[in-house]
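Task card 7
Instruction: Convert sequence to structure tokens.
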Amino acid sequence: MTSTAAIFDVGDYVVYPKHGVGRVIELQDSEIAGMQLQLYVLRFEKEKMTLRVPFNKAEGVGMRKLSSDKTLKEAMHTLTGKPKVKRTMWSRRAQEYEAKINSGDLVSIAEVTRDLFRPDDQPEQSYSERQIFEAASSRLARELAAMEKTDEKAALQKILAVLNEAAPQYYEKAE
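Output:
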């Protein structure tokens, strides 16, 4: 068996693209189908889920450490930009949004959050728009919270404050 060095240590926060921010709770050696495997055991508190990822597959699935401060600043700056709404069918846009969220890329997740944000004085969103917005903003908030050593609720309030401050210039007041 070839031994692969662990890239992540117990206690590290990591981003698993399809699930968001989790924490390495254990490094485990297991025999699966007659093969010895070294596994990262990840815990995702929000989903109450535990995931085991083989060392040699971690990079391939896009598992990574938390974003750099530079990437976080870029993502927060993205929130202040003009929302880009394509005039394609909703089902196609929804697929694109989901793909961006599942990419694990913080800036792409910030783009989805910005594009689907609606200030309180704007017309209501559809249920599916709201669901995707909440998925994106929650994913962004969890990584922000882990980086700033705060909780998801405080991080989400920070994100919404940035969006509410930037939004008025892009929306006409609803009468």
